[in-house]
Amino acid sequence: MIQALLYAAVALAGLLAGVAVNVAADAVAGDEEPSWRAATCHKCGARLPAARLLPLVTLAGGRRACPACGARSSLRRPLLSLGVALALPLLLAHLQEMPGSGRLPLAAVFVIDAAVIGVLAFVFAVDLEHRLILDVSIYVPLLALVLVAVVADRKALAAMLFGVIVCGGLFLLLYGLGFLLYHEEALGFGDVKLAALLGVAVGWPAITTALVLGAVAGAAVSLLLLGLGTATRHSFIPFGIFLAAGAMVALLVAPPFW
Ligand SMILES: [Zn+2]
To answer: What pTM value is reported for the model?
Structure first.
């Protein structure tokens, strides 16, 4: 009974966190106009009502219609809040199954990883919409995670450091290779910074799961878009969304390093 109440409370917290991530992502203004925005109608540009931020109610197509022109708005808001709402109970179940090192109480690891999932959902939404990875969404969580480790669990620093070397190093290498091969930025430097954050947030050895999942998802979606003809070899595919998604799933399936 207490377990059921706990899971219900966590799912509710997930829905609220999803709304907060949507509101934060809607407020982002990039250097350039994005090709679409979840907050406004992609067809006529009318601002969508704030009630559309309520979780779940806009999942049905008809409820996403623009009040001015009737065009359906993007699925980003409803899917993002649903995703975070599902991720938090799954995270709790995963940590109860695989509690990690036991150096920190389970509740603390849950709060840390739930916050990381919220940050990654924000990075996902902003990269998808603006093709941009904001510095603030990298450096603030990175610093916070290192601080938590320094204060409460110094042994976690080794897993973080090794995670950064493997994941950040790999992307730095790919970034350099892109320059050598194409003489232009084939991979955004934002992806390198995101890879460094993931190294700290997911840590060694779970970061390998995150990288494999991200690479498989990225390759599968790229091939699908190429096959459908909606992308060409020169299209920009925001790789950060796959990195962020792979890391979120890794947090839900791989043992925590804390
Ligand atoms: Zn419209």
So the answer is: 0.91
